[in-house]
Specification:
The protein is an alpha+beta fold. The protein is 19% helix and 37% strand. The protein has six helices and 17 strands. It has a 17-stranded mixed beta sheet that branches. β4 and β5 form a beta hairpin. The chain starts with 36 loop residues before the first strand and ends with a strand.
Length: 296
């Protein structure tokens, strides 16, 4: 009787070198990147009332993110300025950077005031004075009751001609013009400043970061407005950095070093100003509007 053939074993898979091939490992889903959560504070600066003054976002960071991330956050916030702060080492010492929706700035007053407000009121730092390291040097902030006094560099302007381009951009000829970082156009009256309806496209084409307009006014030593469409801020509600040029001009013209100022934008804001040598002291108040979390 013929023997039954035993079933043949399945041939094992081997690679060209004769080694047994391993079964491919099952594919795993890619691991999700851990979320990064950042605290965000929305502060109205240079005012004691909500919904006035100049709003700024402040984000305390443990370390710097890439510039493109910082710029994207500022664009998403869509406020005149977003301030980022990183501890520098000692108590009350920080690095600070400021971004508009489109670019990084060299100096910003209201967002520095807002950052000081966040550090002292929300981060639990017990100090009467703070120091922020910036592209414009060390900026001091001193708390005096509910006032925050900023110690900023003075930036006096040099006289420049009242050009046809400036007149066309503003729609009204100023009495005189000066240039530091920004062009400063001086008018005769508060009424002139309030009546301006500037051509933002023309202002953006001027050889300047922004344009300050100013005039004397009853009730304050001077009033101002500020336009910077080229950096994404058509009209800034209250501009601390512009006062680095405004204060030395008005101190010399009025022969006094302590001045009161109002920026007559739609939101409006108040500043108490002092010229101290080559520094300008700017004091104002702040109110927290919102606290939230940014998830990256």
């Amino acid at each position: 009787m013929a023997k039954k053939k035993s079933p043949r074993k399945a041939a094992s898979r081997r690679d060209p070198a004769g080694r047994r091939a391993r079964k491919p490992a099952p594919r795993r889903a890619p691991a999700k990147a851990a979320e990064t959560r950042l605290s965000l504070y929305h502060v109205d600066a240079f005012t004691s009332r909500l919904f006035s003054g100049n709003p700024a976002a402040v984000l305390p960071l443990a370390k710097w993110f890439p510039d493109e991330i910082l710029q994207a956050i500022a664009a998403e916030n869509n406020l005149a300025e977003t301030a980022f702060i990183v501890p520098k080492g000692g108590r009350g010492s920080y690095h600070i950077r400021w971004f508009t929706p489109t670019t990084e700035m060299d100096l910003c007053g209201h967002a520095t005031l807002a950052a000081a407000h966040v550090v002292l009121r929300h981060l639990g730092v017990k100090a009467k004075s703070l120091a922020f390291s910036s592209r414009s040097g060390i900026l001091g902030v001193t708390a005096k009751g509910d006032l925050y006094e900023l110690d900023f560099p003075s930036r006096p302007g040099k006289p420049i001609p009242v050009s046809d381009e400036i007149v066309a951009a503003l729609g009204l000829p100023p009495v005189e013009c000066f240039k530091a970082r920004d062009i400063m156009a001086v008018f005769d009256s508060k009424k002139d400043v309030l009546s301006l309806r500037p051509d933002m496209d023309r202002i953006a084409k001027l050889a300047t970061m922004g344009v300050i307009v100013t005039a004397p006014a009853a009730g304050h030593d001077f009033v101002s407005r500020f336009f910077a469409p080229g950096v994404g801020v058509p009209e800034d509600p209250v501009t601390g950095s512009a006062h680095c040029t405004l204060v030395p001009y008005w101190a010399a013209r009025l022969r006094k070093n302590t001045l009161s100022s109002r920026q007559v934008s739609k939101r409006g804001g108040e500043l108490l100003c002092t010229l101290k040598g080559d520094r300008v002291l700017l004091a104002g108040r702040a109110r927290t509007y919102l606290q939230g979390v940014v998830t990256l």
